[in-house]
Specification:
It contains 11 helices and 12 strands.
């Protein structure tokens, strides 16, 4: 089995079919199909079920995805090591992040990293739960993951570095700012107000639901999955939003006021990576992360 076949296999997986994969690989679709057929013959099992124009992974194909990614990652690591010995600071680093850590501390760490290693390309993917980040790092889909959780993240077999604790804040709707001149509010102060809430399962949504469960008469007016919509909704006067403090600088630049919510709840932010076989770019990024944590 050669790595070209694995590369083509993963392209079909990542692009959802043979046509798009062939376009991405800049090869003819029949050539791609022939290569995958050769890989299936070599393994003795079908990797895809062809349903019309769609290619759906078989059970064997699903099992191959993780090992194939690890092989390609290890090959990239070997190439990067050789390049580093030649003094070439190039390559690619794949990162996955949840939304709030993706604002901070990821922005500051990327700024420091790209200044030190301007030739390394960073690809940043999105996740919405710590479990998605953990699975992506474990499977080798990405080398670095950033996650936020109500409690410190501990994962067997995965390197975890705690970066910071982000207190939850209220991003205030300027059209309904009745909170006075202080810098903090208590949860009871949310009574009578309209709230833009994250989806269930997040710490921010838990705080809102906990306040409602304890008799605070707030109203969830919008439930938002795409958190990039939150600040525009606050600016439009739709409601207040409960978010981690990583959102505060952007909110302030937009002219919005933020208030600490007491008693304080924290989002524990950590960076995750494999314990072994990291590329030089990933090791360098972790060094930047350690400096941030310190």
């Amino acid at each position: 089995m050669d790595t070209r076949k694995l590369k083509y296999f993963l392209a079909v997986v990542d692009h959802g079919g043979f046509n798009r994969a062939a376009e991405h690989l800049l090869i003819a679709q029949p050539s791609l199909s022939q290569t995958i057929a050769g890989l299936e013959k070599e393994l003795g099992v079908p990797l895809f079920h062809r349903i019309g124009r769609r290619a759906v992974l078989s059970d064997a194909g699903k099992e191959l995805v993780g090992p194939a990614r690890l092989v390609m990652r290890d090959l990239a690591a070997a190439q990067s090591v050789v390049q580093a010995l030649r003094g070439i600071r190039s390559g690619q680093l794949d990162i996955i992040t949840m939304p709030s850590p993706g604002i901070e501390p990821l922005t500051s760490m990327i700024a420091a990293f790209t200044q030190a290693y301007p030739s390394v390309r960073l690809n940043v993917g999105a996740a919405f739960t710590p479990e998605e980040v953990i699975e992506s790092v474990r499977s080798g889909s990405t080398e670095i993951g950033l996650a936020g959780s109500p409690t410190a993240i501990r994962v067997p077999g995965v390197e975890v570095l705690q970066l910071e604790r982000q207190p939850l804040i209220l991003i205030v709707n300027p059209q309904a700012d009745t909170f006075g001149a202080g810098g903090a509010v208590v949860r009871e102060d949310l009574g009578g107000h309209r709230i833009i809430a994250s989806q269930r399962g997040s710490l921010m949504r838990w705080l809102v639901d906990d306040a409602l469960a304890h008799g605070v008469e707030a109203e969830i007016v919008v439930e938002v999955a795409h958190r990039t919509s939150i600040l525009p909704l606050v600016l439009a006067g739709v409601g207040h939003a409960v978010m981690p403090s990583s959102w505060a600088p952007t909110a302030h630049k937009a002219g919005l006021r933020t208030l600490l919510i007491e008693p304080v709840s924290h989002l524990e932010v950590a960076i995750l990576s494999r314990k072994d076989d990291l590329t030089p770019a990933a090791r360098a990024f972790l060094a930047v992360a350690r400096q941030h944590a310190e």
